[in-house]
Amino acid sequence: xxxxxxxxxxxxxxxxxxxxxxxxxxxxxxxxxxxxxxxxxxxxxxxxxxxxxxxxxxxxxxxxxxxxxxxxxxxxxxxxxxxxxxxxxxxxxxxxxxxxxxxxxxxxxxxxxxxxxxxxxxxxxxxxxxxxxxxxxxxxxxxxxxxxxxxxxxxxxxxxxxxxxxxxxxxxxxxxxxxxxxxxxxxxxxxxxxxxxxxxxxxxxxxxxxxxxxxxxxxxxxxxxxxxxxxxxxxxxxxxxxxxxxxxxxx
Length: 251
Prior knowledge:
Elements: H1 2-26, E1 34-38, H2 44-52, E2 57-61, H3 65-81, E3 83-84, E4 89-91, E5 104-106, E6 113-114, E7 126-129, H4 133-136, E8 147-151, H5 169-178, E9 185-190, H6 193-209, E10 213-215, H7 231-238, E11 244-250
């Protein structure tokens, strides 16, 4: 019946995601420097970040097909043309991450930059996982990730929906496991006060009961980990919201 077909479809999708996760993680160079972005949206930050950090391996995960498709198209065009895609809205603050210093530095969509290495194709340090980034954590070796980025996740603002928020005690445990001890960092950017407070409360609770994390203040220069301003962030600013940040280091 319909319920059986729906259940079968969900199981097949789960199996495919698991197989993809195994393929990606088995073929990864875990002995170097790796950044994981969970929920990369349309990929603007992931692609820009990877260009700014060519010696880092950049792994992006997102469960939404349209965003994955947009990112893959940009990568394909860049690789075919031998030039990097350039985000039209770069963050132009002073680096202190104050909510009032956020202003986009507009660029034309078609402006691109040649690859730093003319013998290498763009984005050779990028890998994409089209699935749940939190579930992907379980496939990643321990003590192998340098940075985890979480930018503008769904805040699930209804208090009754808090269990759907991406930051949970179990999530922190998995992030701590995969992050390199004493140097691995988790970065958050959100314009939802409820999610900002929720995240801080969860980390504080874990630190109080178990330790293992320390809050990093002041926040590291945003231009090093979130150099772009997404359409979502710009829309939020227009509507009166502002971006808040957190950074926590594994210890």
